Structure prediction request, 337 residues.
Amino acid sequence: MNKMHHRSFAVTDRSHGAMISQHTRQLSHELGFASKKKGELDILVAELVSNLVKYGNDGELLIRPIQDNHQTGMEIISVDSGPGMADPTQMLEDGVSTGGSLGQGLGAIQRLSDEFQLYSQPGTGTVVLARLYQHRSPQKLTSQLADVRWICVPKAGEHVCGDACYYQLTTSSLKLFLGDGLGHGVAAEIAVSQAINQLSQSRETMPEKLLALIHQGTTGTRGLVGTCAVFDFSTRKWMICGVGNITTKLSTPRGVKGFMAQNGILGYVIPPTLLPSEMPYERGQWLIMTSDGLRSRWNPARYAGINQYDASILAAVIYKECARHTDDMSVLVGKLY
Prediction:
């Protein structure tokens, strides 16, 4: 429900591990992790770094604090463009290795994680998702109505992010929003933060009215582009409305449908009439939004078996393949059950 972004760490040699461990230790202290959990985190990070150095091309770790169903935790996502794996499940078995090692890395990461997933395809690289919570839960912590996840990364060299993702889930509706403040840096972050504040204070469920509220609430800022999508659980329909260049697609096993936003800049000038689009629900449907920090020619149909995975896996695969690294970058994925 918050807008916390990931911190990105490039991993090309083992020396990067010390800086990453320093960051995760500080974050685990702020999150209130117990000493045992901190020790497990150190091992997990070391194994992820080791795997990226051995097998990953353009390896990267994405780290951010999370809160799932009132559980505080940390999310760590490893992405690379290495050779990938033909049989990821087999690689989780202790003693199995393609690099001449003891073959305990991925298995150890899985055991130390409260939530873990591995996605890989030969020739395209690998994504590893690990979540650790302040208190280990024996059950999956995501909602049974929907799973909403995102990747949100500032432009290299920036400490704040001008992109932000937001969601609000109730028993009656799911609201999703991706905003991109113009440019990057502090001014862009202020604009998108004010947009999120408007959303968090409103009970409105019509996306065009939510965008109108954002427009009014961000006057005087640098401005932003943004798309809002609302799913009504009673009618089983999406209503989507956007201003500016946020790429939005609905993906199902039968294909991908794109959404066309209207021209304008929230906070500056918007069309006299905001026109939402209605789209029906289909089984196995994902709603995906990306900012212009990513190339827009992504297609979930290319990622075999992705429907079986956590929404963060799809977000990470799109980020891995399409990130420009010249601007703030964000991918928001909503998956309905």
Summary: The domain at 146-336 is CATH 3.60.40.10 (Phosphatase 2c; domain 1). Residues 95-103 have pLDDT under 50 and may be disordered.
